[in-house]
């Protein structure tokens, strides 16, 4: 019999996690980590005022998909191959984490005609569900090994989670979902202890369609005993990509692409390793749309999937950008000047929060006044102060940004606070008069595969330098 549990609180940010009764005997621990503070990269990106952009840019696979696909290889023994993998730091960090757990990972250069790289991942079954703190602390996606490891091995010992710091992103929905399936967690001042016997199917409803919680519950439930139903699940293209790989492995999932997923658990021994091509990164594609929109010109974005960007492309069209769409990609052509719009972030198929820094940068030189509302992470406005250094006229009112378009931006020294905001600052620098220097570009490296080379290939005046000590 399935047990139904509703997950979440009064807001998408959730409530503080409440401690369960103490665990005695064996079990693992999940330590809540402070954000990682990199000290090994002092590179800066220098962007100068650029004329119209032209040409073609090929977009690689999605960061927000590949990290979860890598975690899914923990579920079954065998040799996996992931293709269209972006060459980004988060993939390297996730590979280090998975190797610490017992996988063997080889990076292979993509053949001629492809972008990114291939990953060969060998799971010999010799998994040690304990990962070094310093690895798990560096990447938000480390949380996604909890589901497959608990589902297959019944224990976990890993620090959680690192990655971008732009407001509260609690993991309570992940843990409560696993509790509903039979896992037990104890929250202490030192972290979280968790263990279980074989997970059991449950009927779970999310108050909010959390992407991370949906992914974790998917990977746990595919090897659980019985049937699990996930209601109000997230349905981003990256989740569909994960479902498609899991189904190829032999998992039984119904409702893919909808908000209600039904998963019939199977034994891990019945699953098989697979080859899978990572879905294209829709946020990287939108970044190059923003670049041509702010600089002028017309570019082709090869491998962009318009269907995955539907709402954002619609809002871009409202700003005056025109698109030609075909199965292989899109052509984006800039207007003489962008028009202001009002936009609010929402779960997919709405406008994703990752697009928002790009939209704010575009609105900063658009005609009129635009209001951007952040419904998912109200604290994600740290980059606004950096755009103001470039001359942007932006005021913050709660979770709203009021952007008054100016005639032009001016170059300045700015700091990238996270992945997407860093990319938005690079794009804004291309439209600013003079020179813009962006530091802390290690954030950008975590999610963008050679953004400088790709922009330069379109004619942008941008370079990366390493200052002398």
TrEMBL record:
List the EC numbers from the record. Answer: 2.5.1.7
The question of whether Glycosyltransferase is a record keyword is answered with no
Which keywords does UniProt give here? Cell cycle, Cell division, Cell shape, Cell wall biogenesis/degradation, Cytoplasm, Peptidoglycan synthesis, Transferase
Q: What class of enzyme is it?
A: transferase
- What does the UniProt entry say about where the protein is found? Cytoplasm
Pathway membership: Cell wall biogenesis; peptidoglycan biosynthesis
Task: Please tell me where this protein is predominantly located.
Answer: cytoplasm
Which InterPro entries is this protein grouped with? Enolpyruvate_Tfrase_dom, Enolpyruvate_Tfrase_sf, MurA_subfamily, RNA3'P_cycl/enolpyr_Trfase_a/b, UDP_GlcNAc_COvinyl_MurA
Q: Which PANTHER family match?
A: UDP-N-ACETYLGLUCOSAMINE 1-CARBOXYVINYLTRANSFERASE
Supply the name of the protein.
UDP-N-acetylglucosamine 1-carboxyvinyltransferase
């Amino acid at each position: 019999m399935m047990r139904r549990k509703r997950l979440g609180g009064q807001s998408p940010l959730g409530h503080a996690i409440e401690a369960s009764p103490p665990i005695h005997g064996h079990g693992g621990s999940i330590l809540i980590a402070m954000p990682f503070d990199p000290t090994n990269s002092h590179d800066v990106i220098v962007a100068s005022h650029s004329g119209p952009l032209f040409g073609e840019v090929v977009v690689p696979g999605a960061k927000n998909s590949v990290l979860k696909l890598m975690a899914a290889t923990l579920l079954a023994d065998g040799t996996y191959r992931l293709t269209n993998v972006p060459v980004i730091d988060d993939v390297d960090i996730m590979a280090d984490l998975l190797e610490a757990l017992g996988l063997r990972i080889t990076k292979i250069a993509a053949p001629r005609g492809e972008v990114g790289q291939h990953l060969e991942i060998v799971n010999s079954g010799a998994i040690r569900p304990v990962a070094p703190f310093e690895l798990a602390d560096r990447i938000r996606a480390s949380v996604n090994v909890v589901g497959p490891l608990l589902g297959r091995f019944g224990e976990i010992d890993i620090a959680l989670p690192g990655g971008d710091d732009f407001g509260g992103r609690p993991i309570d929905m992940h843990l409560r979902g696993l509790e509903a399936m039979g896992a037990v967690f104890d929250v202490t001042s030192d972290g979280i202890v968790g263990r279980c016997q074989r997970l059991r199917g449950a009927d779970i409803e999310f108050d909010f369609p959390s992407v991370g919680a949906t992914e974790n519950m998917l990977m746990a439930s595919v090897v659980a005993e019985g049937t699990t139903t996930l209601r109000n699940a997230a349905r981003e293209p990256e989740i569909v990509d994960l479902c498609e790989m899991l189904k190829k492995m032999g998992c039984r999932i119904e409702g893919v692409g909808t908000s209600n997923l039904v998963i019939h658990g199977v034994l891990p021994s019945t699953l098989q390793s697979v080859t899978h091509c990572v879905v294209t990164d829709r946020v990287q594609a939108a970044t190059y749309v923003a670049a041509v929109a702010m600089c002028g010109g017309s570019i082709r974005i090869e491998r962009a999937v318009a269907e995955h960007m539907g709402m954002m492309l619609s809002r871009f069209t409202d700003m005056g950008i025109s698109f030609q769409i075909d199965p292989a990609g899109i052509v984006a052509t800039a207007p003489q000047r962008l028009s202001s719009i009002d936009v609010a972030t929402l779960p997919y198929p709405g406008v994703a929060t990752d697009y928002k820094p790009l939209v704010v940068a575009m609105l900063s030189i658009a005609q009129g006044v635009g209001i951007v509302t952040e419904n998912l992470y109200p604290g994600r406005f740290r980059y606004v102060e950096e755009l103001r250094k470039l001359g942007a006229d932006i005021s913050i009112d709660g979770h709203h940004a009021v952007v008054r378009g100016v005639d032009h931006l001016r170059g300045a020294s700015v700091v990238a606070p996270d992945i997407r905001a860093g990319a938005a600052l690079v794009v804004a620098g291309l439209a600013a008069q003079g020179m813009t220097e962006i530091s802390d570009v290690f954030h950008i490296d975590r999610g963008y595969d050679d953004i400088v080379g790709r922009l330069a290939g379109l004619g942008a005046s941008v370079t990366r330098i390493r200052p002398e000590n």
